[in-house]
Design a protein that fits this description.
heterodimer, A: 324 residues, alpha/beta, 4-stranded parallel beta sheet, 13 helices, B: 433 residues
């Protein structure tokens, strides 16, 4: 038995090497095809039990994980925080121990506290996959962003990718910064200083305060969601002004000297951080991101379960892609 | 009557008299009878050989949380006093953020009585600045002083109102009381769980900027200058605060300041992997802050070391970083940590360390102790500066185990602690001398 290629848990891209990230992306390639089949199911994780433990509301991430699990034939249980024992004051560690006692194989956790996934991973034997912990990381989102960029541009190294918006509160931004830098991209960040972590430049990113400059610099814009409660908390004066100063608008994109790939982790606030004409425009890969999310999550689940990367193609089973 | 005791042949360090030489210390009737060589032997004297060891005034900690009343499962005055004795402390000052808050003479008197009942390290109460620590109305300083309070503080709850802090400093002058100040600008620090910097950016944790402390250090040294009151700045953590304190002292403001062993030895990197034992308020800062705090302590800009001993139940810290409470225990590791890092590390001499952990805090809070002057109460510690030991939190006398120093190899510890001539550490040692 060789050592698992990723370790026990996937907590964040900060912890992974460039080779490990490439391995996940390469493993995702054969899994893309599974979702294109009429019968979208392979037996790779048959008999494995996976708990999707969501302490925060999430639609697309939870559904994407659930599709990935089901298409690999795993048995899945969804636990949402509302209405569960978590609401009754059960601690995270008790939740973990109870799940472990039911002899599960993997936990996919979404939690409002940074570090919750690492906390759980350190305390249970099952594999833990971070589906977003507070403002720390959202590694599978980072991976699907990388895969989408690689699909579109054929490479990642040497590209200039700018994250636009609320970097301070964004776990997507942190996973993107680690993943992109490790694979050799140049990373920029653009937004008001109120929404930037102090010391962000020390992570090796370029800092832009004007959206026009970021657009002129970048090959790819990854536009982050602006949580509307940030305005109530006083980080920005108004949504209207934010759109006027930082909005990714068609007019601004048209001035760029080269075509820009447009990404967004969703859900979008149309007319707040991004103009609908840009989101739905010819250079938007926003829906490709969603499609790739399933393949990337299949790859992560498969690798953490001990699947051998060189067999990922074969793991798809005897299916020919045609109806059976 | 207890037998007289002669501590024979040790290195006697008494910073209150700039005394540092081999000598014997004779303790009789609970007081220091004599310090010197060739002392006359009273009848029935017990002789303890303390060669290779250091005899010093007992350590004094002006900032501990003993959780009684209200959270006796976590710590009591007796268990905290036992932990203090084990750490070489002969006097500690208990912060008033108990439940209910120690904000009146009855509550202060309760702590005094519990301390006497425990009969270990002396526990001096600190009364609340404001009723319920709510930051609205002054507590009855005069009555609390009458019941035994040695200072006032709203520690744990910063005094947001500049007006309230001003009146507290003015009113405290009547009683010559230090106002112990937890410097934290609440709107800047709101929601923060660690130092704001690169580590918090990486971990995705909300930061507390250094300015949240420095604004209040600046405000309250200005108010101390305005009023002539004595402000004592608790757990100073930033280099910016050091600069402000230095300036205030140069202007003659009545300001004293303390620093904790953990702020002298750890940085915000200890929070990596979301280690909740590195979560405290003020938070661990950066290497440049640690360097500035060490120099400030050396130069006397910061007067003393205080542990900010803050016990918590083990399962409270067994949580996500955001959800864990602030604070760590420190009484039983304070001397070993600072001796290992700062004395053996070449920053302080041993007499300087004893000054900062005994004489200086006693002077700052007008406490007896901090001296081996003949006639003073025999609050004495015998330290073995070469003892090597490993921090084992399960062996603590404190009821709580929340320390970031668990497993740390340290050099130097208290081997004998006497309060009023009575042995309070090690436990089980013959007391009926």
């Amino acid at each position: 038995m060789t050592a698992p290629p990723l370790g026990k848990d996937l907590v964040g891209l900060e912890d992974l090497s460039a080779d490990q990230i490439r391995l996940i992306l390469d493993t995702a390639e054969p899994f893309k095809e599974v979702s294109e089949r009429p019968i979208k199911k392979v037996p790779a994780l048959r008999g494995k039990t996976i708990v999707n433990l969501f302490f925060e509301a999430s639609t697309r991430t939870r559904i994407s994980f659930e599709f990935a699990e089901k298409r690999l034939s795993a048995d899945t249980v969804n636990v949402a925080a509302s209405g569960s024992s978590v609401d009754k004051g059960e601690t995270l560690v008790d939740t973990a121990r109870n799940l472990e006692a039911m002899r599960i194989d993997m936990v996919v956790i979404r939690h409002p506290s940074s570090g919750a996934a690492a906390f759980l991973g350190d305390r249970i034997r099952s594999n833990v996959i971070n589906a977003g912990d507070g403002q720390h990381e959202h590694p599978t989102q980072g991976l699907l962003d990388l895969l989408t960029i690689r699909d579109k541009h054929g490479k990642i190294a040497g590209l200039k990718v700018c994250l636009v918006g609320d970097v301070l509160h964004s776990r997507v931004a942190r996973s993107n910064i680690w993943g992109l830098s490790k694979l050799g991209a140049e990373v920029g960040v653009c937004g008001p200083d109120t929404l930037m972590p102090r010391g962000i430049e020390e992570l090796g990113v370029c800092r832009f305060r004007r959206i026009e400059e970021a657009i002129e610099w970048a090959d790819v814009l990854n536009v982050l969601r602006l949580q509307l409660e940030r305005m109530e908390m006083g980080f920005i004066p108004s949504v209207r002004e934010y759109y006027r100063v930082f909005g990714v608008t068609a007019e601004r994109i048209e001035k760029a000297s080269r075509p820009l790939t447009i990404m967004h982790p969703g859900p979008m606030n149309r007319g707040v951080e991004i103009d609908s004409r840009v989101a739905d425009g010819p250079h938007s890969v926003i829906l490709d991101q969603v499609t790739n999310g399933v393949a990337v999550r299949m790859a992560v689940l498969y690798l953490l379960a001990g699947g051998r990367p060189e067999l990922a193609d074969a793991a798809k089973g005897p299916g020919t892609g045609g109806p059976e | 009557m207890t037998r007289p005791l002669l501590l024979k042949g040790g290195r006697v360090i008494d910073p209150s008299r700039n005394f540092d030489q081999p000598a014997d210390v004779l303790i009789q009737d609970g007081t220091i009878a004599a310090v010197g060589t060739g002392l006359g032997m009273p009848e029935g004297v017990e002789i303890r050989d303390v060669r290779e060891q250091v005899v010093a005034p007992g350590l004094v900690d002006v900032h501990v949380h003993l959780r009684e009343p209200g959270n006796e499962d976590v710590e009591t005055i007796a268990s905290g006093a036992r932990a203090a004795a084990a750490g070489g402390f002969t006097a500690v000052c208990a912060m008033p953020n108990t439940d209910p808050v120690t904000d009146n003479q009855a509550a202060v008197g309760f702590i005094v009585r519990q301390s006497v009942r425990a009969g270990l390290t002396r526990v001096y109460p600190i009364g609340a600045i404001s009723v319920g620590q709510r930051g609205e109305r002054l507590s009855e300083f005069g009555e609390m002083v009458g019941a035994g309070a040695v200072a006032v503080s709203d520690d744990g709850r910063p005094v947001a109102s500049s007006h309230l802090m001003r009146t507290a400093l003015e009113y405290a002058r009547t009683f010559d009381l230090p106002v112990a100040d937890h410097c934290e600008e609440p709107t800047l620090a709101a929601g923060g769980v660690m130092h704001e910097g690169l580590v918090s950016a990486r971990l995705g944790l909300k930061g507390i900027p250094a300015a949240a402390e420095e604004i209040m250090v600046a405000r309250d040294t200005l108010l101390a200058g305005l009023t002539g009151g004595h402000v004592h700045l608790c757990h100073v953590s930033t280099r910016g605060s050091v600069d402000i304190i230095r300036g205030a002292k140069e202007r003659g403001v009545r300001v004293t300041a303390e620093v904790t062993p953990h702020h002298l030895t750890l940085t915000d990197r200890a929070c990596e992997r979301y280690d909740t034992h590195a979560k405290m308020n003020p938070p661990l800062r950066e290497a440049a802050d640690v360097a500035a705090l060490r120099q400030a302590l050396k130069q006397g800009v910061i007067d003393c070391i205080a542990s900010d001993h803050a016990p918590h139940a083990y399962d409270a810290k067994e949580a996500a970083f955001d959800d864990a409470p602030f604070g760590i225990v420190g009484l039983e590791t304070a001397f070993g940590v600072v001796h290992t890092e700062l004395v053996l590390g070449g920053v302080l001499t041993l007499p300087e360390l004893i000054h900062r952990m005994s004489t200086a805090p006693a002077v700052a809070f007008h406490l007896p102790g901090g001296t081996l002057r003949p006639g003073a109460a025999a609050d004495v510690v015998v330290l073995d500066p070469t003892a090597r030991w490993t921090v084992d939190a399960t062996a603590f006398s404190s009821k709580s185990r929340n320390t970031p120093f668990a497993g740390r190899a340290l050099t130097g510890r208290a081997v004998l602690t006497l309060v009023g001539g009575k042995t309070v550490h090690p436990a089980g040692a013959p007391v009926d001398r």
